[in-house]
Amino acid sequence: MSDASVILISLLKSKPGTQDALIALLKQNVDMVVSTLQGWKTTRLIAAADGAGVVIYSEWETRAAVEAMRSDPRMKAYFPKIMELASFDSLLGSAVLSETR
Questions:
Q1: Which residues span the domain enclosing 42?
Q2: Is 64 within 8 Å of 39 (Cβ atoms)?
Q3: Number of domains the chain contains
Q4: How does residue 2 score in pLDDT terms, banded at 50, 70 and 90?
Q5: Which is more confident, 25 or 1?
Q6: Residue 55's domain is classified under what CATH number?
Q7: How far apart, in whole angstroms, are the C-alpha atoms of residue 25 and residue 85?
Q8: Would 21 be classed as within a structural domain?
């Protein structure tokens, strides 16, 4: 594929009844921190229909940009707040196939 974006996928499994609060916190984080960072391209928040969690899909210019985001003090300040609402797992990679109808 020609798009060399680095893709960060994060799966947050929300505690019962906290999905809406989690989405609000993540949206605030994207608006106030993530969108201001060098190398950020796009973020999508995908809410589970059953309220069980949120997937964060983000594209970055480089792996170094992702590492810089993770070490940014403003970002680090959000991690404890997020962990109060959900468990967290992520993977970093690149697109190997993209098809559209």
A1: 6-92
A2: yes
A3: 1
A4: very low
A5: 25
A6: 3.30.70.100
A7: 10
A8: yes
Would you state the pLDDT for residue 1? 46
Residue 101 counted as domain residue: no
* Domain-embedded: residue 28: yes
- What the block records as the tokens of 53 is 């969690």
User: 65 is written with which tokens?
Assistant: 């940009």
The 86-93 sheet, strands edge to edge: 40-47, 53-60, 6-14, 86-93
Asked if the structure places residue 99 within a domain, the reply is no
With tokens 């962990």, the residue in question is 83
pLDDT surpasses 70 at 3 = no
Which residues have CB under 8 Å from 39's CB, separation 6+?
60, 61, 62, 64, 65, 66, 68, 69
pLDDT of residue 4: 81
Mean pLDDT of the chain: 95
